[in-house]
Amino acid sequence: MEKKIIAGIIVVLVVIVAACGAYILLTDDSKADNDTYYFFIQMETGYDSEGLPYESNVMQEGFWIKASGDNANDALQNLCKNKDWKVAVTDMGGDSTGVYMSSLFGIDGITTPEGVYQYWATYVWDEEMKSFAYSSLTLDQIVSSDNPQYISLVYKQYTAGTDLPPTATPDDIPKDVL
Fold first, then answer.
1. Which of 6, 37, 128, 140 has the fewest beta carbons under 10 Å from its own?
2. CA nearest to 50, candidates 3, 105, 13
């Protein structure tokens, strides 16, 4: 009987040690990817520069900034935390999975009194087309491989059939950002 109790205690201890080890390995962010992402951020229409990182004209022209993380969402979150920028991401909801950026610098997607929808659009660089293309992926689904990933976040008005991607290219990234 005593041998069964000792064997039972050993089994319980082994299970506890294994569970603790698994928890430590699965929650250790130092083992996470730290891939490079370049964000081109732009606001197509003019805004008061209060609360924005740059003056209104720079925001309209757009600017490049470098970040790192496991995926584009993680990189954006890290960037905003380091720069002390306000950012909000929202679950897609419904049958969709993933997250999208619903607010940056405290500027949310809105519908104007005229019924025009203004929102943050996400574009990814298409190497074959040599231009940005509207992303069908959510931010957490955009992952970098061995090469950096180029993403554009543009605050714009939605008008059916007139969605043009930004004209910026990775060649435009200033050397101090690389």
1. 128
2. 105
